[in-house]
Structures are given as C-alpha cells and as structure tokens.
Amino acid sequence: MHTPYRRGILLCWLALNLSLPVHAQSQEGRLGASSGKILGDDGNIWSLLQQSRYPLRIGILPVIHLNTKPTEANLQADLDAYLQTALPELQHIQSQPRILSNQRLLALADEVRLDLVIQPKLIALEDRHWLMLSVYSGPAGEVVQNTSHTLAQADPQTITDVIQSTLKDLAPSVPIHDWQQPDVQLGELHLRTRPEGMQVHLNQRAVGLTPLFIRGLEQGEHLVQVQENIAYQVKRIQVISSPPGVQVEINGKNRGLTPLDFPAELLGSGTYQLRFKSADTFKAEIRVQTQPEQVPVQLNNLPVQRSPVSFQELTQTEHTLTLLPYSAVKVRKPFSIAPQEAQTLEINAYKSARLNIETAISGAQLYLDGELAGDTPYTSHLAQGQYSLKISKTRYRTQERLIELQPGESHDLFYTLTPRSTDTSIFLTPTGELSGQFNLGIKYLGFGNLEPDSLAHLYGLEVDYGWPSLYQFADTFDIGLGISGFAFSLHSQNIWRRFQGLGTKLQFLRESDSIPISAAIGTYLSLDPEHNAWVGYLSLSRNFGDFALHLGLQTHGFNLNFGYTGWDHLRLGAIVYADSFLRLLAEDNESSSTFYGLQLGYSF
C-alpha cells in the first residue's frame, strides 16, 4: 500500500445532516449511480435520489500550492486546527501535500475507506487568492465535482469556512450500495472492472454499476457477478492485400478488388465466405471494427478474438469469417469477507481463460451455467470466473461441480463416466450390467401359481458388487466379474419357504453410444443345507437410451425384464418369470406358472 499518502488526510466521517444523495432508487433496490455525474442542478435526478442511511466518508487532503508565491509557513497546521474545531468528526494524520495520481488515489480510498476525497488547491495572485476544491469519487478515482472560490486572503479561517460550506452543498453521485445497515463490525467490497459500467449482482441481487463500493457485508462467503449489457454494430470490415488488386468474392459474389470495404448491407453478425483470386502470390489482411469494441470474431478455426481485430499474413485463397452474435461477458467471483475487512476486487472482464474438457467416453453433453455448451471433447475460451459445470450422457451418471477459471490460464479437466444402468444380478435391475459399486435391490412377484389353484407370492432382497472391466479383449468387448448375495421367500396358502444364497456372473460387454449390448453367463446357488439347488443362466441385455430390455435363458425356464434406468441411483423395472428362478424354492414334484412383478434397485 502507499503509506506515504495515507498520512496527512483529514478524514471526515460525516454524521452531519448534509443530505448527501448517494443512491438511486429502483425496483431492484438502491443502486449506486455511475460515477462521473454531477447532479447538483438537475431537479429530475434529484427526485430519483434517496438520502443515504449511512454517512459518507470524506477525506480532505492537505492544501496544494500551485505557485511559488510565499505563503504563511504554518498555514496547513493552522488550517488543520480550524477544521478540527469546525468539524470535530475529522481524524487527522500528518502527510506531505501532493496531488495524487488516479491509481494512488484509488489505493488511498481502498486503504482508508474513503467514499469521497477533497483536494484543495491554492493559487496566490498579487491581490487575491483562488481556492479550487476538486472532489474525487473513491470508487472511481475520478473528479465528480469542481468548485472555485476567490478569496481576499488565504487565512485558515476563510479556507475552513469555504470547505465547510462545500461539504454542506456537496451533491455528487457516489457509486455506493449499502447491503444492509452498515456497522463497524461489518465488512465491505471495493469492486472495479475493466471496462467500467458493468452491471453488478451480489448474491443474485442487483446492486449497481461498476466501480462500486458495497458496504455493510456480513462475515462469510458471497458471490459477486459483473455483466455487460450492450448491443453492437459493425462499423467496418476491410480487406487489403500486398500487392493490391486481388479479387474478392464474398458469399459467392464478386465484390471488387483490394483494398475493399464490405458493403453496408453485409455489416452485421453472421458468417462470410471469402475467396481471393489472383494470378500472383499475395498476402491479405482482414480488419474488423465494431461499436462498441470487444465483439467476438473468428477466422476459420482460429481462436476467437475480440474487435478491433486484424487477421494478417493470409496466403490461402478461401477463408470463413464469423462475427458471433454478441453474448454479454459475464464474470462470477466468489469471495469471503472477514469482520471489519475492506476487500478490493478488480476484474478485467475481457481477459479470458481456456477450458479443455475430456471424458473417458466421448459425446457427453456439457452444460455451463445451465446452458448447453457442446459435447466432449470440448475446448473454448471463456470469461474468467466461476461456472457451474454439468456433464450428462445417456446411461451414465450426471456429474455436477463448480469450477473457477483464472484469467490467462488454461484449465484441463478429465472425467470418467460411471454407468447408471448397472448391476451384477440378472434379477436385480433390468439391464444386467456390472458396475464397480454396491447395488441393493428388492422385488415382488405375484399373479402366479405354485400348484394348481394355489396363488403364490415371491419376495426378494439382493446385494451385489462387480468389476466391469477386468480385461479388455482385442478392443472389442470388456470382460467383467460380479458376485451377489440374496435372500428370498416364497409364500402361498399352504407354503412358506425361505432361503439364502450366492450368485456369480461373468459378463461380456460391447459398449456403444447407440445400443450397448452385453451377454453374460452365471449361476445362483442356494446355501440351504437341506435344500441344495442351483440355477444356471445365459443373459442378453440391450439398452435403448434410458430404457433397457433384458432376457435371461435359464436351466429351468426364462425371465424377461424391462425397466427405466435414467436416474443416477434409482432404477425401476417390470419382471416376468416363467418357472426359472422358482426352481430354487420349489420341490421337484411341484409345478409353477408364470409370475409377474416389479423390482426396485438403488446404487450406492
């Protein structure tokens, strides 16, 4: 910090009833008006302003003598004494009188927490003095009001009276927003952007335009967003070449020879196909100018640049020039405020970051701040700041997180995708595919008979785990292994049987973005010592988007499963059993009909 300049300022924490308007009233709340406006004589603007609930903090710099005419040596000391008598709220620190640069004035305002800074300047003439008071905005560091006074003599009493009168009549617009009733224990944010005039939202609430001081912030985490809100027009697109005289076609129509300006009817956002024709070698240049500047422009597949831009040393004959529809630059920054902290945040909104995202399986949809940005692999230059990122792909779990992009840096992210429609058991969920996670499933089957005219019900609980990619065979399919444990009961009018057991499965999976197919062989074995039984099976599964169809061919029958697998953790399906699995529960002399039911699965 610039400590030589914080010493010697008279700080006035104005508790005086000066009626200083520092806020504009709107439906969103109290918005800080943009800096640089002088509102003193504008009655209409006065009617829109509202008196601050919190006093302005004003710093009075030492007097600057703009000529060398001798003045009283102790003028500043006497002036300080008079000011402190007239304004007892002043805090006084010694310093050297000096005109501050814009950057040092901003640093001063941040360090000492000044909303306004008054710089007195004194010019001594032969028979009189000129006293000029320049009022600077602390947030912007710019002059917002100038006053001049002719003094018969430059004594401390007279200068004090002028300063005191100026304070009472002070009427500049100061870009300040009080988040809540400020208190000495609360913090504040000093926000500045390049460019200025960007809309500011704090915790999703509009608070004003930059530069802006936001006072009265409670301790903790906050999120500030700055965003531009402007339309643009293309001022000029020019094509020149060396040597000149190259023929230029724009969108298939001959427009003339270089140097060439695009006709007015083509000056707008969109894509232009340019073709250069020349019998000799040449180097061309394309210049784009817009109002305002910073419009995104792209040539061929080169990185997007912002106007004004010049594409030089072009030797190819065909080019694609794209003026992208203007998307307002938006930057979000999280920050943390400590008690009594004054934090300064400066954002260069047009300094971008590069984001590269790849997924283990390509073609995943990528969403940034809720909007579809493209498919993976994804590469783009984005405004710095915080983004909400979502990666979504059919049959795979959705992944969401917050990312923070730093200006001027490249961010490389890689994500593996976890299948949603997975399990180790052909009975648990509709797809029958393995996953490296625990799965819990329950099922109910009814509407079938264990014996003629004996309605029966089947209840089941199963837990399983799998290793879906133990080995990859010739880049063709993955071989996986799964194990499971189960407990079932069969109930009818005359029968109540329970048993538990283990299951194993060997899977062969052929992955495809359109219709994934898997085949598996496996067995279920009852652990009941009094009723040892087993069921072997061959299973086939096909996925159709978020729906799955599964067929199990078993040693004693078959089962058919159909279900929805579009949720990340939950799966729901319908089951049809023809004998098959019931053989684990039924005696050899018992027969069973087809059963129908529902199953519900959850993956951890």
Give the fraction of residues assigned to helices.
Answer: under 10%
Q: Got a strand count?
A: 45
Rounded mean pLDDT is 75
- Strand content is over 45%
User: Which CATH C-level class of the largest domain is it?
Assistant: Alpha Beta
Explain this structure to me?
- There is one protein chain.
- The chain has 604 residues and is mainly beta.
- It has 4 domains: 3-177, Rossmann fold (3-Layer(aba) Sandwich); 233-323; 351-415, Immunoglobulins (Immunoglobulin-like, Sandwich), CATH 2.60.40; 439-603, Porin.
- Helix content is 8%, strand content 54%.
- The radius of gyration is 38 Å and the shape is elongated.
- The two termini are 53 Å apart.
- Residues 1-8, 13-54 and 422-431 have low confidence and may be disordered.
SSE topology sketch:
Layout: H1 3-6, E1 10-13, E2 21-26, E3 29-31, H2 43-48, E4 49-51, E5 57-60, E6 64-65, H3 75-86, E7 90-92, H4 102-112, E8 116-124, E9 129-137, E10 143-151, H5 156-169, E11 176-178, E12 187-194, E13 199-202, E14 205-209, E15 212-217, E16 220-227, E17 233-242, E18 247-250, E19 253-257, E20 260-261, E21 270-277, E22 283-291, E23 296-299, E24 305-306, E25 309-314, E26 318-323, E27 330-337, E28 342-348, E29 352-359, E30 365-368, E31 371-375, E32 378-383, E33 385-393, E34 396-405, E35 410-415, E36 439-451, E37 454-473, E38 477-492, E39 496-510, E40 517-526, E41 534-544, E42 547-554, E43 557-564, E44 570-579, E45 594-603
Parallel strand pairs: 5-8, 6-8, 11-15, 12-28, 29-35
Antiparallel strand pairs: 1-5, 1-7, 2-3, 2-4, 8-9, 9-10, 12-15, 13-14, 13-16, 16-27, 17-20, 17-22, 18-19, 18-21, 21-26, 22-25, 23-24, 23-26, 29-32, 30-31, 30-33, 33-34, 36-37, 36-45, 37-38, 38-39, 39-40, 40-41, 41-42, 42-43, 43-44, 44-45
Helix pairs in contact: 3-5
